[in-house]
C-alpha cells in the first residue's frame, strides 16, 4: 500500500525551504484518517497540533466563548455536568447554515491564534498542524506545505457509521465541507487511506523521509 503514496506537484514542491521552523498543514475530508495520520507523524518525531483539540479546549476553558454561546443558544447547549455539549451544538449548526457561519466566525480566529502561540512558544520544533477546514478557512497560504489524507467515499462513510454517526449526520457534515477530491487536487502531497492504519503509517514514514531529503534544508 505504501507504493500508492501520491505526489501532488505544485510549484512550491520544487523549492527548497530554508528556515528554522517548518509548519505543515494536514487536511482531508471527514472520516479520511487525519487523526490517524497525525498520530503517525507524532511517532515519527514531529510536534503535532490539532485544530479539533484546540476547539475542545476552547469549549472547556474559554469563558468568553462559553458566554457567547450561552447568549446565542441558551442553557440547552450544556450537558448534565454543566459543560458544553458538542453534539447539541452540532445539531444546531449543521441544520442551519447561518448558525454555522456565526460560530465559525468566532471559533476559527481563536483556533488560529492559539496555534500561532504554540508555534511561537516552541520555535525549535517542526509542526504538523491538523486542520480539517484548511481550504474552507483560506489558511493554506500560511503553511509551508499541505498534506491531504484521502479515502474513497464509501470507506469514509463506513468508518463514520462505526463511530456512531447516523447516515443523516454524515451527509450534513460532508455537505458543509469542500469535496475531498478538490482538497486532494489542491494539496502539495497526499496520503491515500483506503487500507489499514499500518498502510497509512508506512506512507507517512515515506513522506517524512522524502520531505527531509528533498524539500528543505534545516539550519544547523
Give a brief rundown of this model.
With 220 residues, the protein is of the alpha/beta class. The chain has helices at residues 34-43, 51-61, 63-73, 86-93, 97-121, 134-137, 153-163, 167-175, 180-186, 197-215, and strands at residues 6-7, 17-19, 23-28, 47-50, 127-130, 145-150, 189-192, 216-218.
Can you walk through the features of this model?
This protein is an alpha/beta fold and 220 residues long. It has one domain: P-loop containing nucleotide triphosphate hydrolases (Rossmann fold), CATH 3.40.50. 52% of the residues lie in helices and 15% in strands. The chain is built from 10 helices and 8 strands. The strands form 2 sheets. The chain has a 6-stranded mixed beta sheet, with helices on both faces. α1 crosses α10 and α2 packs across α5. The longest helix has 25 residues. The radius of gyration is 18 Å and the shape is globular. The two termini are 35 Å apart. The N terminus is likely disordered.
Quickly list its features:
alpha/beta, Rossmann fold, 10 helices, 6-stranded mixed sheet, 220 residues, two-stranded parallel sheet
What is the total domain count?
Answer: 1
**CATH class category label:** Alpha Beta
Mean pLDDT over the full residue set:
89
Say how many strands there are.
8
Gyration radius (Cα, Å) is 18 Å
SSE layout:
Layout: E1 6-7, E2 17-19, E3 23-28, H1 34-43, E4 47-50, H2 51-61, H3 63-73, H4 86-93, H5 97-121, E5 127-130, H6 134-137, E6 145-150, H7 153-163, H8 167-175, H9 180-186, E7 189-192, H10 197-215, E8 216-218
Parallel strand pairs: 2-8, 3-5, 3-6, 4-5, 6-7
Antiparallel strand pairs: 1-7
Helix pairs in contact: 1-10, 2-5
Amino acid at each position: 500500500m505504501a507504493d500508492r503514496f501520491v505526489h501532488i506537484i505544485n510549484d512550491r514542491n520544487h523549492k527548497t525551504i530554508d528556515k528554522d521552523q517548518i509548519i505543515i498543514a494536514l487536511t482531508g475530508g471527514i472520516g479520511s484518517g487525519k487523526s490517524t495520520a497525525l498520530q503517525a507523524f507524532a511517532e515519527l518525531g514531529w510536534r503535532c497540533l490539532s485544530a479539533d483539540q484546540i476547539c475542545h479546549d476552547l469549549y472547556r476553558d474559554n469563558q468568553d466563548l462559553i458566554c457567547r454561546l450561552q447568549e446565542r443558544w441558551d442553557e440547552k447547549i450544556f450537558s448534565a455536568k454543566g459543560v458544553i455539549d458538542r453534539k447539541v451544538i452540532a445539531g444546531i449548526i449543521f441544520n442551519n447554515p447561518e448558525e454555522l457561519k456565526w460560530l465559525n466566525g468566532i471559533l476559527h480566529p481563536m483556533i488560529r491564534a492559539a496555534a500561532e502561540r504554540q508555534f511561537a512558544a516552541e520555535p525549535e520544533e517542526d509542526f504538523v498542524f491538523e486542520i480539517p477546514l484548511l481550504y474552507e478557512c483560506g489558511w493554506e497560504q500560511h503553511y509551508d506545505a499541505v498534506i491531504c489524507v484521502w479515502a474513497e467515499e464509501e470507506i469514509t462513510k463506513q468508518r463514520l457509521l462505526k463511530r456512531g454517526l447516523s447516515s443523516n449526520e454524515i451527509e450534513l457534515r460532508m455537505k458543509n465541507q469542500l469535496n475531498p477530491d478538490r482538497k486532494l487536487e489542491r494539496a502539495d502531497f497526499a496520503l491515500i487511506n483506503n487500507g489499514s492504519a499500518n498502510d497509512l503509517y508506512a506512507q507517512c514514514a515515506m513522506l517524512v523521509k522524502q520531505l527531509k531529503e528533498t524539500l528543505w534544508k534545516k539550519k544547523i
